[in-house]
Design goal:
285 residues, alpha+beta, 4-stranded mixed sheet
Length: 285
């Protein structure tokens, strides 16, 4: 929301130095008011007197050291640890086991930036689809026991991604919650419906005709989504309506999932920040 202020009192978020100069010169009822910058210098906390002139007392925020950096760190039972920023819906997860070393960072309010290097080229390609069509920023780095096969790396990337989504969603206030999208890719047509309910469930009905796409084992597609569902706490249904080419079927699946997830995570303005549940709470069960 933009504040309507006299020209000489406007605050330019793009110029902290000019705002700092205003801080020195702004006085209310003979006492200096306080302007507080957020950790990333983009948001300002304004004195109530500067906003409406009703009160003579400035509004101040005294954050803790952790709050001043906007950082929350949380540990999860699945072996992952996550870090998120209060300034945006982001999740950052590092998962280390004897089989894999995985790092995932997701921004739900991103622009579609994709930086993915899992050691599994086809999986990187699918994660790029998630970023591009969901308009999420997705950063995944992974190393695993590829000398055995891709199973453990595929699984742990999905577990970490689900944990990052869980962290980024927070209390899920004000979101649409539900997503539904059908994506065509040439002869293939895939329908995805999901609910960010906090209850993990996967319904999976794909008929992938070949055992591999490149070097990627097509059995790992279902396992990827099952692992993601388990840690994110979403209900996800995937149905194939048409398709003969394995690559097209799988890629259309990730595109449909990206668009459905984007729909579910975007704000529902009519809710005014309320939880989209008659129970008043949505949490990972």
């Amino acid at each position: 929301m933009e504040l309507s202020l006299p020209t000489h009192r406007r605050l330019l978020h793009s110029s902290p130095s000019s705002s700092a100069s205003l801080l020195k010169s702004t006085r209310t009822s003979g006492s200096e008011s306080t302007l507080s910058f957020s950790a990333n210098q983009k948001a300002l906390v304004l004195p109530s007197t500067l906003l409406c002139g009703i009160s003579s007392k400035p509004t101040r925020i005294s954050p803790t050291p952790m709050e001043s950096r906007g950082i929350i760190v949380q540990a999860f039972e699945n072996g992952s640890s996550a870090t998120s920023s209060e300034m945006g819906r982001t999740g950052e997860v590092k998962r280390v086991t004897k089989e894999t070393n995985v790092f995932v960072k997701v921004n739900l309010d991103g622009t579609g930036v994709a930086e993915n290097s899992t050691g599994i080229p086809f999986l990187d390609h699918m994660l790029d689809q998630l970023a591009s069509h969901g308009l999420f920023d997705v950063h995944v780095k992974a190393a695993g026991d590829y000398h055995i096969d891709d199973h453990h790396t595929n699984e742990d990337v999905a577990l970490a991604l689900g944990t990052a989504l869980l962290q980024a969603l927070g209390d899920r206030k004000g979101i649409n919650r539900f997503g539904d999208f059908s994506a065509p890719l040439d002869e293939a047509l895939i329908h995805v419906a999901l609910d960010l309910s906090g209850r993990p469930h996967l319904g999976f009905d794909l008929q992938i005709p070949t055992e591999r796409v490149g070097t990627y084992d097509t059995q790992l597609v279902e396992h990827f989504f099952q692992s993601l569902v388990n840690t994110s706490g979403m209900t996800l249904h995937i149905r194939q309506l048409a398709g003969r080419n394995s690559h097209h079927i799988i890629e259309a699946t990730f595109k449909a999932f990206a668009r459905a997830l984007r729909q579910a995570t975007e704000p529902d303005l009519r809710r005014h920040g309320s939880v989209p549940s008659s129970k008043g709470v949505l949490s990972r069960s």
